């Protein structure tokens, strides 16, 4: 197992909110190797002590469930180096004297990836090292292809094993459970096809606004931010044919097959199979039941260039051109500043062909991606009248208990040499190919930018 992690962008929000708490969870679970050390790097002029105090404060805020003793133990393993990420010599200097395999984690804006990866190639990484990159992988298809070529040059003979494309959704316990639902459940798989399923909705709805991410989000939009990566990863797990084995290569082969089978939308289809919108002034809900809080229109938020026409809501309807899914619609919907938080997959089964069904709603299987439910099965039951009166019956289960957060699983995979939770290069490219026609048509103005009030259900 790799014992040294070089963390680039160590003073950023991703590190403080997710990566440091994930390392603390791994330390608490005794999953980090002996002698484990983190070299944290950023452009700020800090020393070890100043960075350790910053890390301790962030851990106290974002990892309160981890004991103070464990947090302190992790903090002692942190070393800080100042580095300018756009300077190849500065990046190369971080690796000076390192002779054993190292994991280099790029917790950086995607626009810096090419520069930093090139610098790592020039410096030369010890055999067995890995480069981990956060999503989005490239800003479009051409960028993803170019970055893949660059990574292949730097990785050399190690190939994909030396590269880890991070999509933390793959580390969520609920998403892992989605995979288990299909691989280990003989009840579900026989009906997992268009003969029984009319439509599958993949929803990523948030009741929060920008939360300090305006600089990144306004150049991305909701489609690039979550739909092209998180949501298509979920779609691939739902739509794929089952692999012949649990080997990580076989699993990722099937995921790629599913993405390649997603029919690309024509320019005409984009106009009636997609929607885009952004929020106006409104009131976001309070999860605790209070009055909520007022937020300005997206175009008036600090750091936003309203002329970009960035969307905060997106909806795309896709078809999967395989024998399994011919005739089933896949609806992807994502949005910010909505009236509720809902991240789930809804499987809508075809209604029963029975004179006793009485127009009852079709059965649904709801699979939670981020709580509060893990699985909820809504079935059409009946009241013993003459004739029977259909009524819905819902069976639900809480999310599975888990000892590690999603980023904990991701980091463990990186350090241990696993690749199950990594997005393979051809996966990343296929995901961009699915969404490129949509982005192109939107940029050409073929789909109007609608509006919805913050705190509402979205555009009408």
Describe the structure in brief:
It contains 13 helices and 17 strands.
Give the helices and strands, then pairings:
Elements lengths: L3 E5 L4 H16 L8 E6 L5 H15 L5 H9 L1 E5 L5 H6 L9 E4 L6 H11 L6 E5 L6 H15 L7 E4 L6 H11 L13 E9 L8 H4 L3 H19 L8 H14 L5 H7 E7 L1 E3 L8 E3 L17 E7 L9 E7 L6 E8 L14 E5 L6 E9 L5 E9 L8 H11 L8 H19 L5 E5 L7
Parallel strand pairs: 1-2, 1-4, 2-3, 4-5, 5-6, 7-12, 8-17
Antiparallel strand pairs: 7-13, 8-11, 9-10, 11-12, 13-14, 14-15, 15-16
Helix pairs in contact: 1-2, 1-3, 1-12, 2-3, 5-6, 6-13, 9-10, 9-13, 10-13
Protein name: Glucose-6-phosphate dehydrogenase
Pathway: Carbohydrate degradation; pentose phosphate pathway; D-ribulose 5-phosphate from D-glucose 6-phosphate (oxidative stage): step 1/3
Organism: Planomonospora corallina
Structure report:
With 460 residues, this protein is α/β, with parallel strands linked by helices. The chain has two domains: 4-166, NAD(P)-binding Rossmann-like Domain (Rossmann fold), CATH 3.40.50.720; 170-356 and 399-405 and 422-453, 2-Layer Sandwich (Dihydrodipicolinate Reductase, domain 2), CATH 3.30.360.10. The protein is 34% helix and 22% strand. It has 13 helices and 17 strands. It has helices spanning 13-28, 48-62, 68-76, 88-93, 113-123, 141-155, 173-183, 214-217, 221-239, 248-261, 267-273, 406-416, 425-443, and strands spanning 4-8, 37-42, 78-82, 103-106, 130-134, 163-166, 197-205, 274-280, 282-284, 293-295, 313-319, 329-335, 342-349, 364-368, 375-383, 389-397, 449-453. The strands form three sheets. A nine-stranded mixed beta sheet has the order 16-15-14-13-7-12-11-8-17. The chain has a six-stranded parallel beta sheet with strand order 3-2-1-4-5-6, sandwiched between helices. Strands 9-10 form a two-stranded antiparallel ribbon.
